[in-house]
Amino acid sequence: MKNKKLFILPFLITLLFNNIVSAQNGNPSAAGSSEDGVKSVLCGGVERWAVKVLVDAAAAQVNYTPLPTTIDSLINIPTTPSTSAPRMAGKEFQSYVFTCNITVKKNEDDNDYHLVLKSGSETMIGEVPDPVCSAAASSVHVNEFISARNWVNAHIGTGAVSNVNIAPVDVTGVSFVDVPHGQTGAAPNQMEIHPILGLRFSTATGLNETGNDTPAFTVSVNPSVFSESAGFHITSDRGLSGKFRLELFSVSGDRVRDLDLPAATGKEINYTFTRAGLAGGMYIYRLRNNGSIFYEGRIMIR
Fold first, then answer.
1. What structural domains does the chain harbor?
2. How far is CA 228 from each of CA 40, 223, 272, 279, 301, rounded to the nearest angstrom?
């Protein structure tokens, strides 16, 4: 029995080590899965991630003047899904804008916001990349990712919402052909809008509709380009409560600051951020309330 234990122990240690290495290298089989298929637990996606966040070699050739269309038109485009193809000619070189309803919002394991877009009985997926993931942070479209996520946070919610109930929206973004892996709301041809670059209510009737109890935060940073310090001002008409944190990320995706913010005074928080030895350059900040992300933005240190 003693000899068997001595044989099993090195085997278990080796197996554990291999699983850790595989997960760190983004091996989906080791990283875990969700109901939407196998995903990496690391920041950013696994398959064709550069295409998804518009940092691939052909991204500059995309037509970013959105072409008006419909979900019906997009989901009937013939496609050939691939896990490794470069940007697909005739399929992924155009941005679009169309009106639809958002019915589901999920937070993916790769940190994207996953939205189910619906028109009539037809659905397709739209996704907004996490702007602090290194490739997304380096994209020239990072401000659009940030703006779209803040819109979702304000009007849908910061967590998963299985029954979104807001007015119709106009969605703007670039077409992308995914591979089938059981995604919620997937189109029959696997066409998606990935990334979403803009969201807005289609009519004025939706401007004040949120469909949930998420506080409508307003955040300003003055100045947003600074040498030594900047003031963060956070307000909400519904009042502020709980714990607030500021996280700061470099464009390589490293978290360089993680700070508790002062308690709210009524409906506002004022905080002075100092660079404290940070190198000059662009940084992306993330604000949390009781652990949930409610706002993201960008600052520049000279």
1. 38-84+91-206 (2.40.50.140), 217-301 (2.60.40.1930)
2. 37, 10, 10, 11, 8
pLDDT tens-place string over residues 138-164: 899 999 999 999 999 999 988 899 999
Q: Max alpha carbon distance in the chain (Å)?
A: 75
CA dihedral for 128, 131, 134, 137, sign (positive or negative): positive
Q: 140: helix, coil or strand? A: coil
pLDDT tens per residue across span 254-274 = 999 999 999 988 899 999 999
The span from the CA of 195 to the CA of 173, in Å, is 6
Query: For position 48, what pLDDT does the model report?
Result: 93
Which residue type sits at 38? Answer: V
Q: Buried b / exposed e across 234-243, counting CB within 10 Å, b at 16+?
A: bbbeeebeee
Reported pTM: 0.82
Q: What is the pLDDT of residues 236-256, one digit of tens each?
A: 988 888 999 999 999 888 999
Structure tokens at 39: 């995903």
